[in-house]
């Protein structure tokens, strides 16, 4: 398997995976980035960077366990959309998955807060710039 972090793309691309957890009312879980981190205070999809040697799905399953304390089976991660945006000196490639099934109740283990939001209501929230194009896509998919 080719590692997206190596080769001619070099260190420019930053692969990040994130999940839109969807509840029975069609709301999506967002988490607030804590103080002391980049983009602190903004509402984002749970997830994080893909580490060397990890598949995107393994990275997302790990991040959801670390950040929310939930277990998501690989089969319940449906590829949904992506975003591509400049991020400082790097270039963010954000892969967004949709999941409707998980084990456990999400808790804010790393974020400062969690909230369930309908995609249409995300337009009024402070979110990372890269996430903006994902809102309409999510609205159409959920
Ligand atoms: N998890 C997540 N990350 C996002 C979203 N949108 C977005 O631009 N990002 C960016 O993608 C990167 C995700 O890495 P991360 O969540 O593991 O960040 P981190 O706190 O470990 O690293 P950091 O301390 O450099 O911010 C961050 O730079 C974050 O700002 C999103 O919706 N979810």
UniProtKB/TrEMBL annotation:
Catalytic function, reaction form: 8-oxo-dGTP + H2O = 8-oxo-dGMP + diphosphate + H(+); 8-oxo-GTP + H2O = 8-oxo-GMP + diphosphate + H(+)
SUPFAM superfamilies: Nudix
Domain of life: Bacteria
Pfam families per UniProt: NUDIX
Cofactor: Mg(2+)
Signal peptide (residue range): none
Keywords attached to this entry: DNA damage, DNA repair, DNA replication, Hydrolase, Magnesium, Metal-binding, Mutator protein
Domain Nudix hydrolase per the UniProt entry, residue ranges: 12-139
EC number: 3.6.1.55
InterPro entries found in the cross-reference section: MutT-like, Nudix_hydrolase, NUDIX_hydrolase-like_dom_sf, NUDIX_hydrolase_CS, NUDIX_hydrolase_dom
Enzyme class: hydrolase
Keyword GTP-binding attributed: no
GO terms, molecular function: 8-oxo-7,8-dihydrodeoxyguanosine triphosphate pyrophosphatase activity; 8-oxo-7,8-dihydroguanosine triphosphate pyrophosphatase activity; 8-oxo-dGDP phosphatase activity; 8-oxo-GDP phosphatase activity; metal ion binding
Keyword Transmembrane helix appears in the UniProt entry: no
BP GO annotations: DNA repair; DNA replication
Family: Belongs to the Nudix hydrolase family.
Protein name: 8-oxo-dGTP diphosphatase
